[in-house]
Structures are given as C-alpha cells and as structure tokens.
C-alpha cells in the first residue's frame, strides 16, 4: 500500500511543523514594542523565567545522564538514545513555550493599546500557538525519526519514558514554583501590606508572573506532550503484536500527522475569526481543527485498515475529550460557582465545605464518560482500541494546547498593563481576554486529566501485552496489595507537594516581609524591590522539593515489580490510575470553582469586592491554589510516569 | 471433638452477655440523681434522641419490610428471616446504646460533683460498656442462633446484609443529623449572637447534644456491629468451602465468644483501675482484654485446627488494628496538630491547606499496615486468613466500643455541667474526661476504618468464592470499567452527604435566627427557646437525605452485576474499597486534626482563645466537622454494604 511507504517519512511533517512554529514566533516578535517601562517589566519576567529554566534543566540533566546510563546498561544504547530524545523534546517544548509566552505577553498589552481586542487576541493566540504547534510537531518528529530507523516498540518506550520523567520534574517543580510565589506574594502584599495584586512595589511580583509561565505553560506543555507521546507509543506497542503489524503501527503516526495539519489550519483561521467575540473565535478555531481531523481520520482509516472499527474508537476518544472539557467548564464556571459564592455569605468554613463537595461531585460525569469511552473502544478494537481512543483525544493537541497557552499570555498581559499603569480601558481589554483564559484553562485541565487517564490505561494495556500476562487477577493477594498501595500513591504525592508549597511559600513570606521592613522607601515606591532574591528562593525550593516525588514515582513501580511481581504491579497501576484520576479531577475542579466564585463576586455580585463574602471567597481561592495548580496536575503525570516506567522495565520482571 | 459439639450453643454466651449489659445499665441508673435543672436538661436530650430514633426506625422499617419481601421472593424465607434478625440486632444495639449514653451523661456529671474524677470515669465507662458489650453480645447471639439452626452460609449472608443496610441508614442519617445540628447551632449561637457553646439560650443546643449521641454512639455502634458481623460471616462463608468445613466454620464463632468474655473482664477491671489516670485506666482495660483474647485464641486454635497458621492471621489482624489506631492517634493529637496550629498564625487558608496535607499524609501508614496484614494472613491461610484477620481485629469489639462510647457520654456530661452552671471545678473534671474521649474517639475511628477495610476485603473474598470466579482480571475491560466506577462511588457519596449537611444546617440556621428575632427575652434568658422545633428540622433533613445514598449503595452493585457481570462487579468492589478506605482515612484524620489543633490553642497555646490564630483553627474545625463525622464514616459503611449486597446476590449473577 502506498500510504505505508510514505508513513516512515512522517517525521518530515514534524520538522515542517517546527518551522511553522518558528515562523509564528518571529511573527509575534515583529509586533510593535511597548513603552520602556512595559519592556522593562517584560524583560524581568522573561529573564526570571529563563533563570529558573536554566537551573531546573541543569538539575534534570543530572537525572537524565544517570537514567541514560542505567537504561544503556539494562537494555541497549538505542533505548537510551530514545530516552534521551524523548527527554530532550520535552525540555525543548518547555523552553520554546516559555520563551514564546514571556515574549508575547508585552506584545499583547501593546496590541490592546494600538489595535484593541482583535489585535490583542490575535497576538495572544499566536503566542500560544508557538507552544501548541511545537508540542505537536516535536511529538511527530521525535516518534517519527525512531519509527523511521527502527520499528521496535521496545525502543520507542524509552522515548515515552524520557518525555514522562521530564514532565514529572517540570510539572511538580513548576507547580511548586508557581504556587509558592503566588501564595507568598499575596499573603504579604495583599493581606499584610494592603497593596493591590500585581503591584510593582511587591518584591515577589515578578516571581509570581514568572510562576504563571513556568507552571501553566511549561508544566502544562510537558504534561500534554507526555500524554500525546504516551498514547501514540502505547498504540504502536500494542499494534506491533497485531496482524498486520505494520498497518497497526502506522495508523497512530498517520493520525497525529493529520492532527498536526488540522491544528495548523485552526491556528491560521484566527486571522479570519478575530472579529468574532474572543470566546467564539477560540472555540471555532478548535472546532475547525477537530472537524478536519475527523474527516482525515475517517478516510485514512478506511484506506489503511479496510474497516472502520478503529475509527469509532478514535472518535469516542475525541468526543469524550470534548465532553470532559465541557463538564469541567460547567463545574468551574456554571451554577456551582454561584452556589459557592452564595454560601460564602455565611462564612469561610461553609465556602470550603461547599467547594470540596463541588469537587467531589464533579468527578461523576468525567469518570462515567471515560468508562464509556474505554468500554466502547475496547469492544470495537480491543486493547488497541483503548490506546487509539487516547490518540483520538490527543491528536489535535496542537490547537488545544494553543488555546490553553493563550491563557497565561493574556494573564501576564494584564499584569504588565497593571504594573505599567496602562489605564482602565486597556486593563478592561486584558481582563476580558484573561477571563476567557480561565475558561480555556479549565477546559484544558479537564482535557489534561482525561487524556492522562486514557494514556495511563493505554500504557497499562501495553504493559499487559509486554508482560504477556494472561490475567492480572484480583483473586491474588499480590494484586490486591498492589492495588491498595497503588491507590495510596496519589494521596502520598499530594501530601508531599502540598507541604512543599507550604514550606517554600513560608520562606518567600519571610523574605518579602524582610524587604518591606529593611528597604527604605519601598512601600512609598521610591526604592526598587530585590525581585531576583525572591525568584532565587522559590527556584531553590521548587528544585529541592521536586526530587523526592520524582524518585518515588520512578522507584515505587520498580520496587513492586521486583518484589511482588508483574501481576502485583498491574494491580498497582490500576489502583494508582483510578485513585489518581479521581483525586486529580477533584482537586482541579474544586480549586477552579473557588477561583471563579471569587471572580464572580469581584464582578460585583453579592456586594462585590471588600465585603465579608468576598473575603470568604478569597480564602477559598487560596486553599484551591495548591490543589488545582500543584497537587492536581501532579496526579496526571504520576499515573502516566508510573505506567511508562512499568512498561519499559516489564521485560526484566519476567 | 468436644469443642465442636459445644460451639453451636455459643448463642447462649451472647444471651449471657446481653444480661451483663442489662446489669450494667441498671447499675448506672442507680447512681445518684443530679439537681432538677440537670435532670431537666438530661431529660430533654434523652427525649430528643428517642424522638429521632423513633422516626428514624419507622423510616428504616419501611425499607426492611420491602427488602424482606424481595429477599424472600428471590431466595428463601430463611434468608429473609436472617436479614430481619440482622437488621433487628443492629437497631436494637443502636437503641440500647442511645438509651444508655443519654442516661449516663447526667450521672457522670453528678458523679464528678460527688466523687470526683474516679467516680465520673467509672460511670462514663460503664455507660459506654452498655453499648460496647451489647454490640458484641448481639453479634454472638444473632449469628449463633442461625448457626445453631442452619449451618448454611448463604442464609447467614442475609444476616450480614440486614446489619449492613441498617448501618448505612443509621450512619448516614445520624451523621447528617449531628453535623447539621452542630454547624447550624454554632454558626448562629457562637458566631452571630456571641453566646458560648452549649448555652441553654440557644434553641439548637439540645439538638446538638442529641446529635453527639445519635452520631457518635448509635452511628458508630451500627458501623462496628456491621464490621464485626461481616467479618465473622465472611469467615464462615469461606470456611464452609474448606476441609474440614465444620472446624473452619466453628472457629470464627469460637473466637468472638472468647473476645466477648475478654471484653467483659476488661470492663470489670475498671473497678480496680479507676484510681489510675483516666488515660491509663482505659488503656489498661483495653490491654487486659486484648491479652486475654490472644491467649484464648492461641489455645482454642491449637485444639480446633491442630496448627497455628490461622492464629498468626488472627494476631496480624489484631495487631494491625492497634497499629492503625495508634497511627490515627499520632496524626490527630501528635506533632501534626501543633504544625497546623502554628501555620494557623498565618491565616485560615494555610490552616486548611495544611490540614488537607496532614489528612493525605495520614493515609500512608494505615494503608501499608493493612497491606501487610492482608499479605501475611493470605500467605498463611489464604482467603480464609484475610477474613480471620478481620475477626482478630474485631473480636474484642466489646471493650473497644465501650471506650469509644465513653467519649460522647463524657462530652454530654460536660454539656450538662455547662448548661446547669455547675461551676469551674466540675467543668474541669468533665473537660479532662472529654479530652480523653477525643483520643479514644480518634483511635476508635481509625479502628472503624481499618476494620471496615478488612471486612470489605473479607466479604470480597467470600464474594469470589460465592461466584466461583477463578479470576477477576484487570485485563478485561469490564473489570477496569467496574474498577473506575467503583472508585468513583465514595467520591459521589461524599459529595452527596456533604451537600446534605449544608442544606440541613442552612434550615437550622434560619430557624434559630427566627427564634432569636421573634421570641422576646430569649437572649436575656427570660424566655425558653423552642428546642423541639430545631430537633424536628434536623430529624426531617437527616431522614430525607439518607434515602438517596442508601439506595445508591444498594442498587449500584446490582446494576453492575446484572449488566456488566460478576467479574466487573469484582473490579467495582476492589475499586470502591481502595478509594473508600483512602478517602475515609483522609477525611477522618484531617477533621480530627483540625479539631484538636483548635483544642490545643484553646488550652492557651499560641495566645489561646480570642486570637486570630484561634479564629483560624475554628474555621479548620468547622470544615473538618462534616468530613470526620458525616462523609468519612459513611465510607466505612459504603464499602462494606456494597460488598455484602454483592455477596448476597452473587448466586443470581451467574
């Protein structure tokens, strides 16, 4: 079949995609500069982010070298090289994303000044698309090259493990950075010193803005890149055991090429859509990509596989991704947030209780949706179907990630407008774009969890195939013990990272207090704060604290696999996935619901800012912060990383 | 063997135990009366509790009749009768416990006045022992009688289902009652009107005191009774498939008879121990019972089984029960609560975040302990070993439940002292006894969760045997989907009951506000509040809200079993157990840690009452209340009830 001869060259499309991202980056950089103050602030955020990234990458590099040698020793140089490439692609995606998002924010502010909402929207989305398209293109290129040289899934598993381990460090480290900076800065600035958010006098304000980029852009990018790569490689691995193997291995690669192309069209369409309301512009861009992908998938599956069974699996994954996103949106911006805000009139404790209940409740629909997608795709195409539904959910990652990265750019653009005192009109535009960013972020987070769950299950399926276990039976005590310990892991990691945020935020509080006390004229705006010192503190904290959960996530499955055996490890992965998905949804949605309940009050409802009700929602928001931005996202990574580590080491457990 | 001929008569020991409980009850009633005001308050609490119980039981009776007919139709009249007896025993245990605890509280207050700490301690423990010994004796008598007439485990499963379904309604209904009353009363009384806790002017204060008894005594009793009965019946069911069946079926019955006798000795020993500090008196009474039980178990297993394999399973269950209790104690009264209190100095949001982290962290050791106990007991004696380790943990329930029921009696005694203005010296004694009650309650809750987990696993093992499934494999999509939906159940139920507390508390708030506004002279102490109206509101709320979770817990496993099949249901139970245990531990310990952090500040640490720090810990305590007293305990029941329903209906899924 001709298609089969072309697919090994799919990496070329990846490289083309990277050129398109590069083109977008230079396009964004060519938009007009802001005034010197704006540029100065933007430069501070950019250089702060780069300092963090450099130090984070140096720390991760040590781990990569170590893991490279271990994998070489245990498997082969090819697995090691695949690991290295996977890790490298993930690091590169984070770097590109962070660079683009810090550079785009000031252009967006300036765009709001010179061209109003349409221009600001275009710039912010193009900035986000640098990250979005890069993530998709790096996946296609990286997997494609290893597919070209070797069609061995065991080697490709190394690529997934590289992407996963970097993701854990990026997500956990970034999550701790962003929330320690946020909580610490707000606690002293807003609460103690009584100065507004994003005020340039606050020594922590640059760290806070850096954190938005580090957590939401680089962390999210690494997270989704891992899901993307994981689901594709799981399909490849399962496909290699089916007949005809070549067609089954080629299909996921073909699908992501189509997805990449559809995403590029979606990004370009914003040129035409920019005069719609921002909300429908972004939504329509996503729908265009989704539609193109589905049409492409239909015809290519028909040609490659001869029947449409796998198409329905792909479609069920894609639809469930959209559903889970919409369900998250409802719980984090619909009726539930108004309920929380109304309850907040009776105090902060009821606010917390209601938010927790909303979080628990928000798990119901996504889990049933996931269960449905798994069931349908398995019934149609077996384990391969489960893996393909993950690919279906993630194939249009280019556009999904673009709209998601748009969020922190709009947020930062608002911060720059505030710090440079750009005036209420401009602030109004950036606020509107920022509010939309919260919605896309909520959808993105729902999507990240849904895709993590499907990817973890896909990797779990690949693990079953790799171990050649005919059964992973809960009638064995090893499986049950594995299940219990697996279910425990997300709770243990959550405890650790939440405490890590507490410890790091506390150091930040002490430093900001010290500067307000010791730097004369700081509060009067006559002296400059030492923002670098604050960045240094959260960087050190984040890097030190990411080591333990990282090693725990890698070592726990190995420990179970080598002591209790591969069947127990199967139970462990199932337990970790089920409890991790639930805890992840709960944390993400409770946190976002509190955040948006606060925003809803700030819009003037129930008395607006300055009321007791508002104060109660602020407490809810603060509680939700480490849940939704640190512990919650860590769950996604944890379940995928443990599954991929198990998959890579599966041959050694036998 | 002679022993085998005696065991069918074990129900006689149960009846003797009931007489002992009755004797204790009359013993307590003979202690001197309090003054008229004290008696009046006590009478109000007692009659409030009885009103609630009567209405709760009427509602449950409808369900029992319905289930009786369904079981008769589907199985046999014997299963129906066993169900009826199990339900009846559970109801009776709740009734006896509530009667004893409401009657003992005022005697304890009076005991503190006339005889100081030793007398008050003796009365409170004897009052608690009425419940403790009754629970154990009803179990021995009820199971014993059905064992005498029929040695058919399928019929006995009906008994367990009766106990379980009543437990769910009692625990959920009681939990909603107690927390709605507590939160509603405190919110208006302490926060809005600025009057102290337990102040007689507050219209909700009697409902609050009734709630302590309804939730902590009746609810806890039904919970542990269910675990007790469930683990014994699971061992019987598994034992019936082993060879020699009669010995394997007789052993669990023999063990609980020994446990009952040991508990009676422990309760009696308080007479000698009463001049120790209260803490060591209760602890030593527990140790005496445990020691006697272990010696008895050793010899009886040696005689009955010929080897000691099962003894180690029993011992591992018992030791893990003690460990889990101690681990709970550490996290809810050790260093972690001081950490929470210190963090509370920086505000209420960090207090909540730290408490959540403590709750997550507190899951680690108990789950590893459970995993170890399961692993050891399975390796020594297979599925039967797992079930027996549950019996080992629960055999001394008589004394464990006695020290646990002691808590609400001491708490109520304090409330009566406050309301009757008994003076600071008396209040000091009752405060000391109450503080100890918090520790025994924490240990008791840890124990309740640990035993629920072991019982659920024992029932799960019995379910495997009953379905004759050779495997419940996670390689089947039905099992995986079952696992996911099972893991979701605890989150869904938690969401529902937390919202139920919110709704009911809100109605309570409105009523108390109305009375303060409309009843002239109420705040000045010149008019009496309408306390019955408040009791009526929470009773209605609790009864209406317990229906949905009850039916969901019963219908969900049936739905899975009949649509996706018995293997999927196996996955469902495993998922529900793992996530339910973790969520249960998290909620119980986070809640208790906040509570005790507040108490620690109230003892004068970090500035004591009236400080910002104290206010932050009060918010933590309020958030923790529905977690630790409503949603958390519901998890225990949920996982056991779903397992027992699956076990009973197993023959129909094949």
Give a verbal description of the structure.
Chain A is an all-alpha fold. Chain A has 19 helices and no strands. The first copy, chain A, has helices spanning 2-6, 11-29, 36-74, 77-149, 153-193, 205-239, 245-268, 270-273, 278-305, 309-333, 335-343, 348-361, 364-394, 397-419, 424-467, 477-518, 531-563, 566-602, 612-653. In chain A, α4 (77-149) packs across α7 (245-268), α14 (397-419) runs antiparallel to α15 (424-467) and α15 packs antiparallel against α18 (566-602). The longest helix of chain A has 73 residues, at 77-149.
Please specify the SSE layout and strand pairing.
2 copies of one chain form a homodimer.
Chain A: H1 2-6, H2 11-29, H3 36-74, H4 77-149, H5 153-193, H6 205-239, H7 245-268, H8 270-273, H9 278-305, H10 309-333, H11 335-343, H12 348-361, H13 364-394, H14 397-419, H15 424-467, H16 477-518, H17 531-563, H18 566-602, H19 612-653
Helix pairs in contact in A: 2-4, 2-7, 3-4, 3-5, 3-6, 3-17, 4-5, 4-6, 4-7, 4-14, 4-15, 5-6, 5-16, 5-17, 5-19, 6-7, 6-13, 6-14, 6-15, 6-17, 6-19, 7-9, 7-13, 7-14, 9-10, 10-11, 10-13, 10-15, 10-18, 11-12, 11-18, 12-18, 12-19, 13-15, 14-15, 15-18, 15-19, 16-17, 16-18, 16-19, ...
């Amino acid at each position: 079949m001709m298609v089969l001869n072309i697919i090994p060259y799919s990496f070329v499309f990846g490289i083309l995609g990277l050129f398109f991202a590069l083109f977008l980056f230079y396009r964004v950089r060519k938009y007009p500069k802001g005034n010197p103050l704006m540029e100065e602030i933007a430069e501070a955020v950019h250089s702060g982010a780069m300092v963090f990234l450099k130090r984070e990458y140096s720390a991760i590099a040590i781990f990569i070298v170590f893991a490279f040698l271990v994998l070489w020793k245990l498997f082969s140089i090819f697995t090691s090289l695949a690991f290295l490439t996977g890790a490298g692609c993930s690091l590169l995606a984070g770097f590109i994303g962070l660079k683009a998002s810090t550079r785009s924010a000031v252009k967006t502010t300036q765009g709001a000044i010179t061209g109003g909402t349409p221009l600001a929207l275009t710039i912010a989305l193009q900035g986000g698309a640098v990250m979005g398209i890069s993530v998709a293109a790096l996946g296609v290129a990286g997997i494609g090259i290893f597919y070209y040289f070797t069609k061995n899934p065991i080697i490709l598993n190394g690529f997934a493990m590289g992407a996963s381990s970097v993701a854990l460090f990026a997500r956990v480290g970034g999550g701790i950075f962003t929330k320690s900076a946020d909580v610490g800065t707000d606690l002293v600035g807003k609460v103690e010193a009584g100065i507004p958010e994003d005020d340039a006098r606050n020594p922590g304000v640059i760290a806070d803005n850096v954190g938005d980029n580090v957590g939401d852009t680089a962390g999210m990018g690494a997270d989704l890149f891992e899901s993307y790569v994981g689901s594709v490689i799981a399909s490849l691995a399962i496909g290699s055991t089916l007949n005809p193997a070549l067609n089954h291995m080629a299909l996921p690669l073909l699908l992501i090429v189509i997805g990449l192309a559809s995403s590029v069209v979606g990004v370009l369409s914003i040129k035409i859509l920019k005069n719609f309301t921002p909300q429908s512009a972004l939504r329509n861009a996503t729908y265009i990509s989704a539609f193109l992908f589905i049409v492409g998938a239909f015809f290519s599956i028909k040609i490659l596989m001869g029947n449409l069974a796998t198409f329905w699996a792909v479609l069920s994954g894609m639809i469930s991704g959209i559903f889970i996103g919409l369900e998250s949106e409802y719980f984090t911006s619909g009726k539930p947030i108004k309920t929380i805000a109304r309850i907040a009139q009776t105090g902060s404790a009821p606010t917390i209780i209601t938010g927790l209940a909303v979080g628990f409740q928000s798990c119901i629909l996504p889990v049933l949706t996931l269960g449905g997608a798994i069931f349908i795709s398995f019934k149609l195409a077996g384990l391969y179907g489960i893996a393909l539904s993950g690919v279906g959910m993630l194939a249009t990652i280019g556009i999904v990630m673009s709209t998601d990265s748009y969020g922190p750019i709009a947020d930062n653009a608002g911060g720059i407008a505030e710090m440079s005192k750009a005036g209420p009109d401009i602030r109004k535009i950036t606020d509107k774009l920022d509010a939309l960013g919260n919605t896309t972020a909520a959808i993105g987070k729902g999507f990240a969890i849904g895709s993590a769950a499907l990817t973890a299950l896909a990797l779990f399926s690949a693990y079953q195939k790799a171990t050649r276990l005919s059964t992973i039976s809960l009638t064995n005590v090893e499986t049950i013990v594995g299940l219990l310990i697996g279910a425990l892991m997300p709770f243990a990691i959550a405890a650790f990272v939440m405490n890590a945020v507490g410890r790091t935020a506390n150091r930040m509080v002490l430093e900001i207090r010290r500067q307000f006390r010791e730097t004369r004229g700081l509060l009067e705006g006559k002296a400059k704060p030492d923002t670098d010192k604050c960045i240094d503190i959260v960087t050190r904290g984040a890097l030190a604290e990411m080591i333990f959960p990282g090693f725990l996530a890698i070592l726990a499955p190995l420990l179970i696999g080598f002591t209790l055996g591969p069947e127990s490890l199967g139970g462990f992965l199932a337990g970790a996935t089920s409890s991790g998905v639930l805890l992840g949804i709960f944390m993400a949605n409770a946190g976002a619901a509190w955040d948006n309940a606060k925003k809803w009050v700030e819009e003037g409802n129930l008395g607006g800012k300055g009321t007791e009700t508002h104060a109660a929602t602020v407490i809810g928001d603060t509680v939700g912060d480490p849940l939704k931005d640190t512990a919650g996202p860590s769950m996604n990574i944890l379940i995928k990383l443990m599954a991929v580590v198990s998959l890579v080491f599966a041959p050694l457990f036998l």
